[in-house]
Design a protein that fits this description.
The protein is mainly α and about 300 residues long. It is built from 11 helices and 7 strands.
Length: about 300
């Protein structure tokens, strides 16, 4: 994962390709730019099945419900862990609201209804997020992005960009098309399947790491500030000036980036029981197992997709 202005040699590129090591490029503030990777997966049949099967509205609805249920359950588990550690009634109320959304989700009959339950759950979750942050130097008043406008959101967005890179690698290794999903609408340039498969992992991989680093005071206010300036590369290549960055944008500086990168990668190496593998495996392997589970649904090897959930 390369952040900011990083020069790589032709020898590095050859070595990465020979060893099958994808290289993902990000801006300094964590926005995904692209990747260097070897030949595409050879299993073209699964990609054809994916595109064909996702023309079925009933299957798309079932997949979207499963994805949102996994996300809500993992978000609720995250809040309940902090409730047991002494978080206030705001967290308990949010967990109860999310439980109601989870119970109502099977009644959703359209994708818009599924997205509505997801939105209600997200509102409850991030409405209580400030209650789990015990560092008085940082406040959180709601999720914002593109660009993030406070340090907590800067950390979340940066972590989610890293998670997206990990899921993208697993999706392409499985031979799936990252652009064609169920929950997220198809749109030009949007990796819908990757975004779908990320949902269950946001409160498992990224959110706990960000909150832990804040609460342990491993971040200080000096780790954040305005972006250093526009990335001129995109504008030069496109023949136009890049858009200006809003003045209120908050940027995670180099020291903070190193801390967050190290801890997110450590989290991906942590082990957890993975039912699909019948034993203990790193979270990275669990992500890959979930991607293949989705592939098996498209191939007809499994009837339904079930998200990975934690307690």
């Amino acid at each position: 994962l390369l952040f900011g202005v990083v020069e790589v040699t032709s020898g590095f590129i050859r070595t990465a390709l020979r060893r099958g090591c994808d290289v993902a490029f990000f801006t300094g503030d964590g926005r995904y730019r692209g990747r260097l990777q070897g030949p595409a997966a050879r299993n073209v049949a699964v990609r054809v099945e994916q595109i064909v099967k996702l023309q079925d509205p009933a299957l798309r609805l079932r997949l979207a419900r499963a994805i949102v249920e996994g996300k809500l359950r993992n978000q609720r588990a995250f809040l309940l862990r902090h409730r047991r550690r002494g978080a206030g009634e705001q967290v308990a109320r949010a967990a109860a609201e999310m439980h109601r959304s989870i119970r109502a989700l099977p009644r959703a009959r359209t994708l818009d209804e599924v997205r509505g339950f997801e939105g209600a759950g997200a509102a409850a979750y991030f409405g209580a997020f400030s209650a789990v942050i015990r560092n008085p130097a940082f406040t959180f008043s709601g999720r914002n992005r593109r660009p993030p406008r406070d340090p907590v959101n800067a950390c979340l967005s940066f972590g989610y960009a890293m998670l997206q890179a990990a899921v993208t690698t697993a999706v392409e290794a499985a031979g799936l098309d990252p652009m064609v999903g169920s929950l997220h609408e198809l749109a030009y340039g949007r990796p819908s399947l990757v975004l779908d498969l990320m949902e269950e992992w946001r409160p498992v991989i990224v959110d706990p790491v960000v909150v832990r680093l804040l609460n342990r005071r491993q971040f200080v206010p000096m780790d954040f500030g305005p972006p250093p300036g526009p990335d001129l590369t995109a504008g030069i290549l496109a023949g136009a000036d890049p858009p200006e960055t809003p003045e209120e944008a908050v940027h995670l500086k180099a020291t903070g980036r190193r801390i967050l990168i190290r801890e997110i990668l450590a989290r991906l190496r942590e082990t957890v029981y993975v039912p699909r593998r019948g034993g203990i495996a790193p979270y990275q392997a669990a992500i890959e197992a979930q991607v293949y589970r989705m592939a098996h649904v498209f191939e007809g090897k499994e009837e339904s997709y079930e998200s990975f959930t934690v307690r």
